[in-house]
């Protein structure tokens, strides 16, 4: 792996490195010195407890025989594997699944980080529960999404006639969690206990990322050794201008602090786009707080000679794929036109472990420049709490009208946004440095996903703004922190819908569809409480046609 900078990016990196050298970043970072980010007692006590990821590749290598042995047995016993998790517990496995694909002779991997019943039902239809290993992955052990998925699939395994259904499940969690207790109660096949000093978004090289990768047939030892090899070039003894991880952090931090460029746009081939999703959750959740935030933009349709605004800066992930030439042409065009472009060249997919570590260190370095704590997520809980309030009403059979209301508008905008004049009213909310976020709580069928991306591209071409896009409830565990913690420079469009076919959650008085729509409403309320400009639309079926009609308006 190597880095290449165009002249604009090189100048910005030099500025950032001067700042980081002044902070003694490399020395303090590897010494786990919290004063690099904060000097108040609360943060100084908190930060060192979440730096266990720095050399987690060594810890995971010490446990590699346990992982590989389990994966070899799973290969014999199962045809499918479903990862049930959210945020950092699911996105690293999704990257491995996307980049490496189905490995011959190994279980086919599915990653399920949703409560949408059509999405759950789609995965359920692809597998035979009796031949499926389910990975319940949760650092806390109490996350509502995988807990609900577990309740459903446990019953499906029982219905399939499996005598000991718990043997179709494993857990990945921290020590002493409710999930560890649940795994013991239901006699799970195995429980992998992760180090507790690693936050979810920094856990890719721990059990959370490595166990699912091993089950699907990836040579995880090679992944970890590549990361360990790269770490030698990221350490404190390396000149910082030659340190790719520190240089990327310097770039991100200086773009934000010195150049008013806060829209980090990741250019990647279609095959590597899921890495962008992982980087998005890392950067957004780590930097979006205290009225600040580096805004990651992933998966936009790329246009040559596009008139991007001055708030953009670019990272080009160059890979050896068929689709990469198209991305390369766009990146070259941007570099020639004077936009800052930082290129990371990864030709070998086994460099993925090194790439995870590089971005983690870079995010920590950017956080130091922004003078924020990259390891907390102070605004994530509110949407969860508000969702619980809605669910409490559902438990009593009381369905709030807001759950399926055709249009909801945050209270500060009620006089400004009307359904009959929605597009014009929505665009009129935009201010100078704003981005737009499209947030669908929908199943991405091929037709729906295509319609949503066409809507996104229309908004991009009309406004020239960065258009964020994230499926809910997945984004709640990543960019959701940014939405509520940044400087209020987002305008939000939440989309929910009636399901095609709802699914009852065993043990609950509500369905997956009601849970998913409650989460959409909970996030609307959380954004509204933060004074954000947010509009929520609820669709009837068929969803794809409704989105196409919306796209025609916008």
What does this structure look like?
This protein has 554 residues and is an alpha/beta fold. The protein has three domains: 2-37 and 227-370, Rossmann fold, CATH 3.40.50; 56-225, Glucose-6-phosphate isomerase like protein, domain 1 (Rossmann fold), CATH 3.40.50; 381-553, Rossmann fold (3-Layer(aba) Sandwich), CATH 3.40.50. Helices cover 46% and strands 15% of the residues. The protein is built from 21 helices and 15 strands. The strands form three sheets. Strands 1-10-9-7-8 form a five-stranded mixed sheet, with helices on both faces. Strands 3-2-4-5-6 form a five-stranded parallel sheet, sandwiched between helices. Strand 2, helix 6 (88-100) and strand 3 form a beta-alpha-beta unit. The protein is globular and about 60 Å long. The two termini are 41 Å apart. The model has no long low-confidence stretch (mean pLDDT 95).
